[in-house]
Recover the amino acids of this structure.
């Protein structure tokens, strides 16, 4: 770093050297290139970023090995062949193809260098032609020029890697051991991201960790709650730890847009799409699958956006997310994606296709995994103008056996809903009426766990009703449907216990358009979001009674906490006003309310599944009275403490205020004379003015004299 | 009690002011005529015609004889309250925004907006006892704050002037020397434009309302923050009860951003807060546009609100109101 001279110092130096400063045109002074006198220019940051991409400047050169060794007379021909292969992939620079020749023999050396215009093209060429078979004896080995260094450094002798001593990691699930059994949640508002405890007993949120600019787009919990993932320009990162949030691992993926965890949170899928170099091409898509713990890339997928844009909904710039759907329960054994006429299923042992080939299904438009078993369901719409019926099939993995198939006729659309234990699959089928002018809805219920997978057909009481929402009770055998064409639709509950569908009840004319079951079942919130302005009805399905009705005006999102004890309703920044969230108890009592401007996200930290066996859970449930006593006492203590604290706080505030007012009164008294002078001696201050005085005023209205004459 | 709806203005209300006796209510609006009403029954008493632009603010002398108004027509006018006669006009080169009589009514402070390259300014004028002797010269002109000065009022004993406006800073100026004495601490201050300022009766403290959705209570001598009242809407108007420890905040979604979804979305209620505990006590609904002006009757038994909807609503409190326990 050169010394920074003050202007004064420059003047004296100039005087010493006999330079007339006024005659110097400062703008004409150029430093020698590369010389900045140690002064950092503001643009340096920019330059650095650029240079990252062209690290050594040779990123656009590839080396092609295993070319045939040919004599001089065949040189031209070979060059022509190589040029033909490689100019298909990208634009080779002028004089960008160089095939060295052995000076002694005049033969080529069996390799060549190719320089492209961009590193992307070189990368693509490497990907596409590495392993290219020119003929049987010549299989291309293609490498990036920049990687030569790396290869040179490989030692000739293999040395066993040093084994590092084991250091026990932090307990990443420490949050589950909270004494008060509270749950955490993360919120994102403005530039701040904050993790808080939901301290429902104290009716407030207790901060855990807060960090501004923690993420550049969104945050996401891993499915078991161990990690919090953040998204940045350079890639994704996961955070966690026993007491606070430390960065545990980074996953480099430039310009990552979307991320998705596998259900057992072993793997992380990241997605980005890039502008193509040629504007006519489609976007290029890069998907990486990382091992969450080691941060290693297990498999990457690259291709054009078209290849990944098939089927599904909830898309994002052309792809349906998640591209890969994970199956086989929490073991993260399989993942699959739908392609054109195929379902590609991969296993996580080899990260390759099962049996090295995809499952061919003509025209498949939708597929979804069972949440627990390696079974997936596919839907194929009608073909050939109704000649070939639509069908829903269940496939088992890894055997790829079709377990069950059902043909459906005159289908317009179809949606699949799995129950969370994978016991039932409900397929909502929209069929055309005979006139083909309108549609009606029916359901096909697959009972997966039973022999031969029986199918139940079921229709609503009024089958012309439009189905607005459908939801299975988690871990249960009931489901709820919002249906009807009225502005106030009906809500019906059904049970599929014992193999037949029976209606439990129908609630007429509800202001609801979304269903939110408690994660433990039994309770459900009938919510009227958007058009209904945030109407909430807390309903107990066991007793078939409404526990409470409430409203969170303008609410956009509703989420149950993982234990089913509390519910968060939030207004995110789709609206400008009212941003923030409310926390409710499961039975619809508003606990507290926090307002935050520019509120983007509210996410409960998920919990891993309980280790208790169903029998044990049953037992606890039976003896609930015994257990709950302890908590009742605690609740009581806290509520007493709270009201005491509250009282004290109020008293404190009151006292402070009194003190302040009294002090002012003193000043006010002192200044009385001055004030009187300002008012020309008018004595009255406002306080005295308002003493009530009764003043009697007698007014003589009229005087008249009349002479009364004697009769 | 049912509020009294006073429909006399054709444009949004801008300011409300009771006289000291609490029998008259003066209202200013974006139409050009300030109006005076009976504060008891809402009957219109008269108008003050002469301005040629929106009237932003007014003040009335202690003996209710003299009214001063500041208008967007680049003038401030003195009026005879009783006859409605124009007594004097102070002309400026930019719109006048806030006006306030000093203790003793011998001085008035008038603020002017930044306009056509002119910066905003605070002018102090001497008010003559006899209107015939009135002169237009300023005793003092203060400059410095960026953007509009939305309110300027006299501090205790006329020794200071307190100003607040678009730059979200509250300033205290010395009226003798014209020097800036104090600015409020940045960390605790408002984050957005301060829209309104109301003094307590004894001038010991004042309340500011801001578009940052909060109102703050300050000590007028030390400019220390005493209380903060957080709400969910931009605050356009504030008032303090002279009788009970209550403050009332009015505001709502910006008129240009009012949606068509639901009337509740706008938050056009006047909200009552406990002055000491900073807790919300209740709200008074009614306006169908943002509230721009609020004023308490000096007896504390009624208050009035003026809205973007052009109405003045006069509310006499029910007896129950006075029974609200403060702790």
């Amino acid at each position: 770093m050169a010394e920074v001279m003050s202007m004064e110092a420059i003047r004296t130096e100039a005087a010493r050297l006999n330079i007339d400063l006024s005659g110097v045109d400062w703008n004409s002074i150029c430093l020698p290139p590369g010389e900045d006198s140690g002064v950092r220019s503001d643009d340096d940051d920019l330059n650095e970023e650029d240079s990252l991409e062209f690290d050594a400047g040779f990123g656009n050169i590839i080396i092609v090995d295993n070319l045939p060794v040919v004599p001089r007379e065949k040189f031209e021909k070979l060059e022509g062949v190589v040029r033909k292969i490689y100019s298909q992939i990208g634009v080779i620079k002028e004089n960008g193809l160089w095939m060295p020749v052995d000076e002694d023999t005049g033969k080529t050396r069996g390799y060549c260098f190719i320089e492209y215009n961009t590193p992307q093209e070189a990368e693509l060429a490497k990907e596409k032609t590495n392993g290219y078979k020119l003929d049987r004896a010549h299989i291309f080995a293609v490498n990036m020029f920049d990687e030569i260094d790396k290869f040179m450094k490989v030692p000739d002798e293999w040395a066993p890697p040093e084994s590092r001593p084991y250091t026990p990691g932090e307990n990443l699930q420490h949050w589950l051991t909270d004494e008060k059994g509270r749950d955490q949640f993360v919120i994102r508002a403005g530039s701040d991201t904050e993790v808080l405890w939901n301290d429902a007993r104290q009716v407030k949120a207790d901060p855990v960790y807060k960090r501004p600019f923690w993420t550049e787009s969104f945050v996401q919990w891993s499915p078991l709650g161990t990690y919090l993932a953040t998204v940045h320009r350079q890639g994704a990162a996961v955070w966690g730890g026993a007491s606070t949030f430390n960065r545990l691992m980074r996953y480099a993926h430039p310009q990552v847009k979307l991320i998705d965890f596998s259900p057992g949170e072993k793997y992380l899928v990241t997605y980005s799409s890039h502008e193509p170099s040629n504007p006519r091409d489609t976007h290029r898509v890069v998907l990486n699958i990382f091992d969450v713990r080691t941060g290693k890339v297990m498999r990457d997928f690259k291709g054009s956006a078209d290849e990944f844009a098939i089927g599904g909904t909830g898309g994002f710039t052309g792809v349906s997310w998640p591209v890969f759907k994970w199956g086989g329960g929490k073991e993260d054994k399989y993942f699959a994606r739908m392609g054109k006429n195929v379902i590609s299923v991969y296993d996580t042992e080899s990260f390759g296709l099962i049996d090295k080939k995809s499952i061919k299904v003509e025209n498949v438009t939708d597929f979804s995994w069972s949440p627990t078993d390696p079974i997936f369901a596919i839907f194929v719409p009608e073909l050939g103008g109704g000649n070939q019926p639509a069908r829903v099939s269940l496939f088992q993995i890894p055997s790829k056996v079709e377990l069950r198939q059902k043909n459906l006729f005159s289908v317009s659309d179809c949606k699949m809903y799995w129950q969370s234990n994978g016991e039932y699959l409900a397929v909502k089928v929209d069929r055309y009426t005979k006139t083909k002018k309108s549609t009606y809805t029916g359901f096909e219920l697959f009972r997966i766990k039973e022999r031969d997978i029986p199918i139940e057909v079921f229709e609503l009481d009024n089958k012309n009703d439009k189905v607005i929402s459908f939801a299975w009770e988690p871990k249960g055998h009931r489901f709820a449907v919002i249906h009807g064409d009225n502005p106030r639709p009906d809500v019906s509950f059904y049970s599929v216990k014992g193999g037949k569908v029976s209606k439990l009840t129908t609630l007429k004319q509800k202001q609801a358009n979304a269903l939110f079951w408690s994660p433990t079942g039994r309770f459900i919130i009938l919510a009227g979001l958007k058009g209904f302005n945030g109407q909430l009805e807390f309903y107990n399905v066991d007793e078939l009674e409404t526990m409470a009705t409430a409203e969170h005006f303008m609410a956009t999102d509703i989420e149950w906490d993982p234990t089913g004890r509390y519910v968060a309703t939030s207004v995110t920044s789709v609206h400008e006003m009212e941003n923030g969230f409310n926390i409710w108890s499961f039975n619809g009592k508003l606990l507290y309310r926090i307002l935050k401007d520019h509120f983007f996200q509210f996410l409960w930290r998920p919990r891993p599944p309980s280790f208790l066996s169903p029998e044990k859970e049953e037992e606890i449930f039976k003896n609930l009275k015994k257990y709950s006593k302890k908590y009742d006492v605690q609740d009581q203590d806290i509520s007493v403490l709270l009201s005491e604290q509250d009282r004290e706080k109020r008293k404190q505030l009151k006292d402070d205020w009194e003190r302040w007012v009294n002090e002012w009164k003193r000043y006010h008294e002192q200044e009385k004379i001055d004030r009187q002078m300002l008012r020309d001696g008018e004595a009255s201050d406002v306080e005295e003015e308002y003493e009530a005085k009764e003043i009697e005023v007698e007014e003589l209205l009229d005087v008249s004299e009349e002479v009364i004459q004697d009769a | 009690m049912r509020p009294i709806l006073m429909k006399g203005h054709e444009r949004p209300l801008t300011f409300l002011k009771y006289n000291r006796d609490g029998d008259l209510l003066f209202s200013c609006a974006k139409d050009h005529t300030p109006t005076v009403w009976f504060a008891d029954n809402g009957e219109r008493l008269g108008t003050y015609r002469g301005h040629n632009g929106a009237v932003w603010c007014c003040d009335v002398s202690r003996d209710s004889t003299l009214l001063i108004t500041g208008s967007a027509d680049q003038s401030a006018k003195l009026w005879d309250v009783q006859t409605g006669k124009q007594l004097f006009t102070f002309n400026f080169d930019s719109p006048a925004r806030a006006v306030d009589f000093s203790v003793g009514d011998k001085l008035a402070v008038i603020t002017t907006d930044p306009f056509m390259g002119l910066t905003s300014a605070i002018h102090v004028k001497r008010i003559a006892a006899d209107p015939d002797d009135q002169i237009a010269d300023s005793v003092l002109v203060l400059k410095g704050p960026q953007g509009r000065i939305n309110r300027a009022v006299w501090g205790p004993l006329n020794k200071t002037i307190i100003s607040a406006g678009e730059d979200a800073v509250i300033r205290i100026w010395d009226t003798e020397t014209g020097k800036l004495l104090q600015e409020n601490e940045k960390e605790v201050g408002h984050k957005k434009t301060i829209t309104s300022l109301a003094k307590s009766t004894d001038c010991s403290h004042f309340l500011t309302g801001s578009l940052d959705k909060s109102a703050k209570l300050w000590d007028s001598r030390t400019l220390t923050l005493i209380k903060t009242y957080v709400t969910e809407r931009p605050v356009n108007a504030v008032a303090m009860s002279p009788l009970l420890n209550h403050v009332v905040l009015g505001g709502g979604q910006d008129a240009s951003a009012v949606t068509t979804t639901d009337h509740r979305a706008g938050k056009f209620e006047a909200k009552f807060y406990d002055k000491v505990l900073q807790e919300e006590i209740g709200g008074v609904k009614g306006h169908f546009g943002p509230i721009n002006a609020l004023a308490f009757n000096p007896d504390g038994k009624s208050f009035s609100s003026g809205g973007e909807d052009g109405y003045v609503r006069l509310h006499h409190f029910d007896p129950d109101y006075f029974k609200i326990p403060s702790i």
